[in-house]
Amino acid sequence: MLNICVLTGNLGNDPEIFYNSEGQPVASLNLAFRAGKKKTGWIRVTCFNKTAGIVEQYLKKGDRIAVSGPLDFHQWETNEGAKRREIQLLGNSIEFIKVKGAEGGNGDDETPF
């Protein structure tokens, strides 16, 4: 069964970086994408290992990227007992479209996100 999603959009905030128990980096970011003519959708993107290191080094809030990978359904229970669930994109591949800190990016962004 094929489960690959490709989205382009802008980072809604700076990526959050933490390290797992093996010391490998994990990056979490919120990606805003066009979900309709006048609608913005949001999805959490999680990257691991080398991809997370690249995210940490180069990406900031507002940068435009393309990301691809499988969708993952995640559910958990809060400390208060509330059940939560989320669909996230596991970012296996990231392409820089307009990144302020990277080569070729000038920071000009006309996207209304």
Identify the notable features of this structure and list them briefly.
113 residues, mainly beta, eight-stranded mixed sheet, 1 helix, 53% strand, globular
Our count of domains comes out at 1
Low-confidence runs: 104-113
Major sheet attributes: 8 strands, mixed
Structural class: mainly beta
CATH architecture type: Beta Barrel
- Total E-strand runs: 8
Please state the average pLDDT score.
87
Q: What name does CATH use for the topology? A: OB fold (Dihydrolipoamide Acetyltransferase, E2P)
Tell me roughly what share of residues is in helical segments: under 10%
Determine the CATH superfamily: Nucleic acid-binding proteins
Secondary-structure element string: EEEEHEEEE
User: What is the overall number of helices?
Assistant: 1
What is this structure's SSE topology?
Layout: E1 5-11, E2 16-19, E3 25-36, E4 39-48, H1 49-58, E5 64-69, E6 71-77, E7 83-90, E8 93-98
Summarize the structure in words.
This protein has 113 residues and is mainly β. The protein has one domain (5-98): OB fold (Dihydrolipoamide Acetyltransferase, E2P) (Beta Barrel). It contains 1 helix and 8 strands. The chain has one helix at 49-58, and strands spanning 5-11, 16-19, 25-36, 39-48, 64-69, 71-77, 83-90, 93-98. Strands 1, 2, 3, 4, 5, 6, 7 and 8 form an 8-stranded mixed sheet that branches. A hairpin with a 5-residue loop joins β6 and β7 (83-90). The longest helix is centred in the middle third of the chain and has 10 residues, at 49-58. The chain is globular, with a radius of gyration of 15 Å. Residues 104-113 have low confidence and may be disordered.
